[in-house]
Amino acid sequence: MADPVEVLKGIAQQFRRGVRSTNLFDPNVCTSPVDPERPWEHLALPGDIFRHKLDIERKGHKITVHANGEFMVIKVSGSFDVDVCSINRRDQVFQLENSSTRIPGFSSLPVFSRQSDTDVAQFLKSKGLQRALIALQPTGTESLHIYRNGIVVYLHRQSHDQVMFAIEALCTLVEEMPALGRKFDQVVLPAQFEGLSDLIRKWAVGDDEARK
């Protein structure tokens, strides 16, 4: 298989964009230990920390791709009305529980979520997610993570065509996700503020991270 960084550079050439340097420790896949005397610093293992980043657009969606020596990580940004969950591997950033809910047609894939969130259960049953998983066919080391501000997939496959196919699948899934912004269409304002409704739909941001 090709080196993930080389695949990233190939995608950058396709989109006529440059690969940028970064220094990202992603706890979902990175395993570099910390220095006991300097716990804010990681003792970087070869090929572990993500050093390469590419920002592109596809079908009107903002996409960020990272690469290290083992993984390609694709994020398609958005604003979704679904609480955080991960499929096939536990998200290490959020305190998620192993859910008893399973995805129709993918009962072997473990799901991790906040158990009380009914929005996640509805999303897991959605045809859009099922179509995305059919396209992605995640292996044991790969995973799909849903956040309110984007969808992230960790790929352990390193061919150009496979990565581009995954990007297309994620873009399609994003278009079928329940958008957080739609809730603003249902906002009921006092009579004296009704004139602000159009501004709310245009400018309101429902995601804490995107609002910063």
Quick tags:
25% strand; 2 domains; nine-stranded antiparallel β-sheet; alpha+beta; two-stranded antiparallel ribbon
| Rg | 19 Å
Alpha-carbon distance between the termini?
39 Å
Strand order in the sheet with the most strands: 1-4-5-6-11-10-7-9-8
How much is the average pLDDT?
87
The major sheet is characterized as: 9 strands, antiparallel
Series of H and E elements: HEEEEEEEEEHHEEHHH
Low-confidence blocks of residues: none
Number of strands: 11
Structural class: alpha+beta
| Beta fraction | 25-35%
Shape: globular
Number of domains: 2
How many H/I helices? 6
- The helix fraction, in percent, is 25-40%
Would you mind describing this structure in some detail?
By secondary structure, the protein is an alpha+beta fold. It has two domains: 4-178, no CATH class; 181-212, no CATH class. The protein is built from six helices and eleven strands. The protein starts with a helix and ends with a helix.
How would you briefly describe this protein structure?
With 212 residues, this protein is of the alpha+beta class. It contains six helices and eleven strands.
